Known about the structure:
Layout: E1 4-8, H1 16-24, E2 29-33, E3 49-52, H2 66-78, E4 83-86, H3 88-96, E5 101-116, H4 120-125, E6 132-143, E7 150-155, E8 158-165, E9 168-171, H5 179-188, H6 203-207, H7 210-229
Parallel strand pairs: 1-2, 1-3, 3-4, 4-9
Antiparallel strand pairs: 5-6, 5-7, 7-8, 8-9
Helix pairs in contact: 2-3
Amino acid sequence: MKPIYIFRHVASEGAGYFGEFLTRHAIRFRVIRLDEGEAVPAAPEAASALVFMGGPMSVNDDLPWIEAELHLIRQAIDQDMPVLGHCLGGQLISKSLGGRIEANPVKELGWLEVSKEHNPAAEEWLAGLPDRFSAFHWHGERFTIPAGATNILASRHCTNQAFVIGNTLAMQCHVEMTADMVIDWARIHADEIAEATDTIQTHAQLTEDLEQRIATLQGRADMLYRRWLRPLIDV
């Protein structure tokens, strides 16, 4: 199988647990480090699937690699290639398909509950997951659901948390977290989490029972990643 291409936009938001999952299942992958000047491939044919990670920038920013990524995503989806997006990556997928990226009413920073939507796509993609569960969040913007896609997850303050279309899964929330990533983000963005609100958690709240929270989240990520990989391989 050709390697899975993982697009990194900033050093602190790399392959994370997703990379660990692929390594455990002996699935080859290549990290394309856009933050270090690597170029976006002109076409997706050298990869078996595309994965887009997060980042603090906006999809609406004037950055040289955004249009190239949007073009690559459209090509991959047209070829029915599996595409996966985490947060910024999910927003890239939405915009590539004609969706909009806009400010969310509030920032969601921390461990917040998401719930399954009631539709066949949610039942199929989220099989085995509880109707409500805690996910990690770190965003101030949100995507709209593009034409032809189906929303499968929602939170209280952001109704569009994940959508699917064909072999593509776009998520606003983060399931790829490791404990080190949570600690690192809390340090880097300390000014954003100085005061707690209903949707923003302080460093102490973010790291409380961290190992258990991460273990639970990664177990749920396993189910999502296995479903996403189904067109390529049985894991």
